[in-house]
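User: Let's play a game. I give you a shape written as tokens, and you guess the letters that built it. Ready? Here's round one.
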């Protein structure tokens, strides 16, 4: 059995990078929802913040679903 250490390192680096990106995008979505709540309390609409939060959460969901697609062989 031969371990390809370079490939394992690439998987580690890509996995960590994608995890950090998803965490940051999710945090931005949570901040946008918080900003929307603050804007709504002052009387404005806050639709831009809601659109940004929806976009961030949809991007996170897409990355998670793509990862599941890659892992489960029956989906190929």
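Assistant: Ready! My guess for every position:
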């Amino acid at each position: 059995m031969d371990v390809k250490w370079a490939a394992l390192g690439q998987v580690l680096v890509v996995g960590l990078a994608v995890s950090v990106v998803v965490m940051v995008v999710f945090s931005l979505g949570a901040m946008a929802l918080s900003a929307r709540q603050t804007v709504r309390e002052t009387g404005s609409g806050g639709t831009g913040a809601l659109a940004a939060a929806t976009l961030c959460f949809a991007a996170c969901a897409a990355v998670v679903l793509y990862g599941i697609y890659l892992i489960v062989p029956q989906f190929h």
